[in-house]
Amino acid sequence: MILIDSNILIDIFTEDDKWFDWSANKVAELSQFHQFVLNPMILAEISMSFKNIEDLIMALPSENFMHESIPLEAAFLAGKCFLNYRKRGGAKTSPLPDFFIGAHAAVSNYELITRDVSRYRTYFPSVSLIYPEN
User: Fold this and answer.
1) Model's pTM, two decimal places?
2) Which of 28, 39, 68, 110 has the fewest CB atoms found within 10 Å of its own CB?
């Protein structure tokens, strides 16, 4: 199972000039052997690309994408990592979606495909990341 960060899906849905090719090709490659997991944070972030929920659901076929709730352990871990972020001088006053996404991957032992590597490496070093290497 691979947790798929919203930035990868947004690249594909918006046909991003810089990242569409990498994101679309990597998702196509990985979907041959893996299923992707989405959680409510990811769905909320990608929902802005769609007019209604039916279109969103159609864009994420169930044979490739499954939906999961964020485990309680992940929510707890997200809060602890966010506290660490604040102690390091982070300016945000409430946990960012990345903390919930990274914590979900960590407690569920999922790989994570993303383009935002630095926060995940810093706060969730146990998570195996799939990312552009350039």
Assistant:
1) 0.92
2) 28
